[in-house]
Design goal:
mainly alpha; 32 helices; globular
Amino acid sequence: MSASLRPLWLRGVAFNPAAPSDVLIRLMDRAAGETGPAMCQGRDLPGAALDAALRHPDRAIRGALARNHHVDPRALVPLAQDPSGIVRAWLADGPRPRSPRRVRPLPDEVLVTLLTAEDGGEDGRVTANEIASGLDGSGQVSLSFRHSLADREHPELRIQATWGWGLLTPEQRAKLLDDPDPTVRRSAREHAWVLDPEEVEARAPSYEARGWGFVYGGCALTPAMVERCFSDDLLLTALAENRHAPGYAVARLARHPAARFRAMVATRPDLAPELVAELREDPHEGVRERARIQPFSRTWAEHDVMNRIVGHGRDCTCPITDYVPQPPDDWFAACAGSGEPLLRQVAASWPGLPAALAATLARDEDEEVRIRLACHHPLAPPRLLLDVFVAHPVHRPHLLTLPAFPRTGTAHLIGHPDLQVRAVAAGDPALSDPPVTDPDPSVRRAAAANPGLAPEALEVLLAAPDTAEGAAANPSLPVARMHALLDDCLGGAAPA
C-alpha cells in the first residue's frame, strides 16, 4: 500500500507550509525524483532550504529555483552568475507557470549581470544574446530600469538604450549621440532613423513581414504612410497608438466613422481641445466616457497608465507589472476621488494608493473598481478578495497567491456548488468536521490539509489515496512524522 502512496506523501510534504528546512532539503535529493524541482519552483522556501537550493550541485534544482515566483527576486541574485547557462536562461525567461499575474521585476544588479555577460555559461547550451533576449520578453525588466539604460555606466547598456530611440527624451538622445564610447555613438546614429520620416518610409518595406507594428506604431511617418494607414484597420490601430502621429492624423482619427478609433485617441495628451469637446458629445457612450477623462491625460506617462486600464473590462488578466515614469501620487489620489468610474479604476490599480483611499474604493459602487483593488492593492480587505474569488473565477489563480487572501472565515461556503469555492472553504480551520468524504477529490485533498485536524485523524487520511497528499501537506503534521514519511519514501534516517 505504501508504495502507491509514496509519490503523494512526497508532494504533500514538499508543499507543507510548516515543513522546516531540514525536511525540505531532504526532498532536494535525486531519490525524490521530480518532487525536488517541483518544490523549488512552486513554493516559498525558508532560509536554510533556500540557501541549499542556491548552492545545490544539481542544475535541475537551481534551474527550478530560477523559475520560482514565490521567492523574493532579491534572493535569486547568485543565479545570475550561475556556472550553468541553462540556469541563467531560466532566470532570464522568468517564472513558470505564467499564470500568476504579478511579475516581480528582477533587481537591477541581476539585470546588469545578465545583460552584460560575455558568455552563456560553461555548459555551452545557450548564448549570452539568447539569455538577454529571453529576459527582454519576460516582464521582469522594470520600466524604471529600461528608462535608466541611457545613463548606465556600462557601454553595452547604453547601446541597448538606443534600441528604444523613439521613447527616449530629447536630452537622452543628444547625450547618446555624443557618448564618449564610439560603439554607443554608432548605435545611436544607427537607430536615430525611427524619428526621420523619410528614412522610415525607405526602410518600411523590410518590415512588412515582421515588425510593421513597430514602424507604424512607434516611428515618425510621412504623409504617404499616414494615408496608407487609413486604408488598413490594423495599420490604423497602430497609428492611433503612435505618440509620433502628426496632429492632422490624430484629428482624422478623432472624427473617424468607427467609434473604436475615436475612442482610441480620446485620451491622448496631444488631442486638441476642440476635438476633446467634440468627443464629449460623441454619439457613442464609450467615446464620451473616455473624452471626459482626457484632462487627466496631460502627459504620456499619465496616458500610458490609463491605457493599461481603460477598456480592459472586469475580466482583464493582463500581467501586473510596475509602470515608470509614474505620475505623481497626487494624480492617483485625484483619480480616486473622481466621479468618473474609469479614473477610480485607474486609482484602484495602483498599489501605492494610501490606505484610506483604498478602504474607500473597496466599497465603491462600481464593481470593476472593487475587482481592480482586490487584484492590485496589498491592502484590499480579505472579505473583498473572497467576494471577487467567488464571483469571478477568472481571477482565482491570482487571488490565491495574495498573502491577504482569507484562509479563515470561509466556512459558510462549504456547501457552495462551485468546487473551487468549496475547496477553499474545506481548508478553514473553524470547520468542526472538514469534508474529507466530499464527492470531489480536490475538495477532499483540501479538507485533509485543514490545520484544524488532529494528528491522530491525519494518520487515517495518510493511508487513503484520496487524502494522502492533503494530509501530508497539513501544517498540523508533526515534523517527526514528516521525516518518517520521507524515510519510507527515500530511505535512510532523518538528519539529527
